[in-house]
Amino acid sequence: MERIVKQNLLYDFYGELLTEHQKEIYGEHILNDMTPSEIAADHGITRQAAYDMIRRCNKILEGYEDRLQLVHKFLKTKEKVKEIHTLSQRILHEDKEQMKNDIRQIECVSNGILEDL
């Protein structure tokens, strides 16, 4: 997964667990694509302090993901839902026997989602 997408997902899932100051600095970097220099100028801190805060927040959020696996579960469920969508679209254009097979497959995939939750 692309680093920026991963950072955004981690922030979306775990950002509220950061302190207000951490959310502000890290959010500007992730959501507004600001550099440590730009963040430093806006907050009256050094570029190094902004850079260190960004790295620290990355580690904190990755630690949450290592323990809780919410992003991993979300992405896994998203793939299963895509598979269900593809199968349901295919059903609309198939004969009855193939339709039964696809419905059974949809049932298996949806059961897998329910088990994961």
Automatic annotation (TrEMBL):
Gene3D superfamilies: Winged helix-like DNA-binding domain superfamily/Winged helix DNA-binding domain (1.10.10.10). InterPro entries: RNA_pol_sigma_r3/r4-like, UPF0122, UPF0122_fam_protein, WH-like_DNA-bd_sf. Coiled coil: none annotated. NCBIfam families: YlxM (NF045758). Might take part in the signal recognition particle (SRP) pathway. This is inferred from the conservation of its genetic proximity to ftsY/ffh. May be a regulatory protein. Belongs to the UPF0122 family. This is UPF0122 protein ANBU17_30960. It comes from Anaerostipes butyraticus. The lineage of its organism: Bacteria, Bacillati, Bacillota, Clostridia, Lachnospirales.
